[in-house]
Amino acid sequence: MLGWSITFLVVALIAAVLGFGGIAGTAAGIAKILFVVFAVLFVVSLLRRAT
């Protein structure tokens, strides 16, 4: 999941450099969502392992 987030972040950065604002914004939004999902699942995993 973190790998996908980083991939979309790189796509967003490349698109922003090339001037594709809409694509960059969409890719950045997807990257943010995937990172939040990753972070939540990571915390849940840590909490379940601790019990």
UniProtKB/TrEMBL annotation:
It is found in: Cell membrane. GO terms for cellular component: plasma membrane. Coiled coil: none annotated. Keywords: Cell membrane, Membrane, Transmembrane, Transmembrane helix. It is a single-pass membrane protein. InterPro entries: DUF1328 (IPR009760). The keyword Transmembrane helix applies. It comes from the Bacteria. The chain crosses the membrane at residues 29-47. Belongs to the UPF0391 family. This is UPF0391 membrane protein E4Z66_00715.
